[in-house]
Amino acid sequence: MRLSDNFRHLAATAQVKAQAVMQMSQAKSAQLLQSMRTMRPSRVISFTALFFAVCAVGAVGVAPLAPDAAQLPVKTITQDLALPQLDEQIAKIILQQQHYIKEEKIQRGDTLAALLQRLGVDDANATNFMKSDSLARSVMQARAGKSVRAKTTDEGSLEWLRVGLGDGSEKAAKTLLVARNEMGQFVASEITESLERRIEMRSGDIQSSLFVATDKALIPSPVADQLVKMFETSVDFRRLQRGDFFNVVYETFWQNGEMVKTGRLLSGEFNNSGKLYQAVWFDEGGGEGGYYSFDGKSLKKAFLKSPLEFSRVSSGFAMRVHPISGKWKRHTGIDFAAVSGTPIRASADGTIEHAGPQGGYGNMVIIKHWNGYSTAYAHMSRFAAGTRKGTRVSQGQVIGYVGSTGWSTGPHLHYEFRVNNEPRDPNTISVQSAAALAAHDLSRFKSVAGDMAHRFELLRPERGASMRVAAR
Known about the structure:
This protein has helices at 3-36, 41-62, 86-95, 112-118, 124-132, 210-216, 221-231, 442-459; strands spanning 99-105, 147-153, 158-164, 172-180, 186-194, 196-205, 245-255, 258-272, 275-285, 288-292, 312-315, 319-321, 328-330, 334-337, 343-345, 350-357, 363-368, 373-383, 392-393, 398-402, 412-419, 422-424, 468-469. It is an alpha+beta fold and 472 residues long. Helix 1 packs antiparallel against helix 2 (41-62). The longest helix is centred in the first third of the chain and has 34 residues, at 3-36.
């Protein structure tokens, strides 16, 4: 049914209903007039008012509800629309030069020709330029797995190619760009691009060793090394056990959607034998900073628990049968078994008092510390560069490498802790921490520590209720 027919139907229906209401109101009015003749004057006045009210209702019902659709003006508009020619559109697209950007990763054993082929580059001039230009040749010096992007035409002509060169600083990284100049000739240049800093969080469980667990958790090796240094004065990494776990929060830096490098380990926690050790990096300003427990105490101890990062104790500070003389005598140090060439670290800050051969000790380094403390490192295969008498060394600095010089039956480190030149068992020496944070830094430190504590709660929701923080 058309719209005009609908209007006509609605108007007719409204008129019929209005007439019915009018007839009913007229009938009721006649009855009222008949009854009013027999009523008293006061009642006549009331019914008169009622009569006019009924008439008003009837008047409302008679009013038309909508205009007659047949009387509405109708206007017809005719307009010609020009349709685009499909052939012309296709021709324009064909004439336009198409551009493509593709990304590939450098593969182990890759060649320049293979890389360019995967990128869709079919350009002899570009290939010859990257073979002859000294800077452009560094494309193939990038490590395997590095991303390379190239922009080409639909015919394979290269417009530009770019690849990240080095790590650069924390805020920027260098990128090699091979592109055409105004003359259409290829030029190679190094440009600096800003890096995107991201914060990542990872968790791991110890099943066999720390590095197996960090590899399984996809934690980069530099971060795993920092985790060891963070807790090396509190956790004996030679005695980890199944069920120990750790959580880490660290920086990564990205360029064009690719991770360029890792940054600092910002915070970590390590559960060892049921004790939870936590630490957070705090920047004290002026280039100074360090790791602190969540209550503001420094994690840096006066002496490391072990001069080697990973090893086992093959002989302790006790009486024993000497492996060469066969005599029963006191062993005045601790032997750490390790493969030849393992780095040996200074267990505390100090000054090198001796660096060279010394009898049965073989190649030996003695470091003088403070308050009559000194440490000795024997049977080294060689000394680290710069290790000589009078040189200042810092805690954790490599001073030499494990060997088997002197009276030794195999590669190991003989480590002595001396007080006033008398050997003492280092396990019985009370190790003091460094000074706590200054009072004016505590407010800012609590904010940093609170953020890291919240992150750890997200990493271990099922463990939080059953752990206790180890006393420092």
